[in-house]
Amino acid sequence: xxxxxxxxxxxxxxxxxxxxxxxxxxxxxxxxxxxxxxxxxxxxxxxxxxxxxxxxxxxxxxxxxxxxxxxxxxxxxxxxxxxxxxxxxxxxxxxxxxxxxxxxxxxxxxxxxxxxxxxxxxxxxxxxxxxxxxxxxxxxxxxxxxxxxxxxxxxxxxxxxxxxxxxxxxxxxxxxxxxxxxxxxxxxxxxxxxxxxxxxxxxxxxxxxxxxxxxxxxxxxxxxxxxxxxxxxxxxxxxxxxxxxxxxxxxxxxxxxxxxxxxxxxxxxxxxxxxxxxxxx
Length: 281
Known about the structure:
This protein is of the alpha+beta class. Helix content is 27%, strand content 35%.
């Protein structure tokens, strides 16, 4: 069946995030404003007689790198070709880009038929925040107190395009705590934990070595009530990140396949201990 596909307004992006919550993807409570900052025209809705029946995000970064996410058709509307219409609309918007996505591994063959190739797998780990113990290292400071140019520049080492507006919004998100490890004016690591539909999620968590990553992880967890569920999304090629999660008693609960259409962009995965968000790359 044919549907009308249009761009979501900023105040409508929450509709797609609510649909993601129904799928069990556990988005953040305040993600919508940040997503809009990434690309105001990057979120599409399929409508049937004015009723939203599906969504896809096709976010463009600097006109060169794009990322697909929030690809959802309402359960009662599946099997009618709506998903393919959304897919084509998203890919058309990102024509000429290298395009990435995080899809469930079972759909890899379908994505390959559209020109995507597997780059690596990611795993979502879940655990529980424990009572804070010990003294926080003096090197750990609030992220918002750090010169924004430092995390902005560091983010370019782990993300293939500039996303300054998104990062500014992400760092200032309500109900979140951002921390940085500063060593004599040098940024050695940084991360953020935000409130989600269920529990809290750490992302990003970027560090130059496992010790800095672990200190930031513990400080972020200590910023929320003990017993709160904690999630972190980790690229499997970073064995140190997996070791960190398992050392804190976290368990694998969800997996995605990172795939690209076009050359896989350079990314220092050994610095990535927590992905910012699956929806935007």
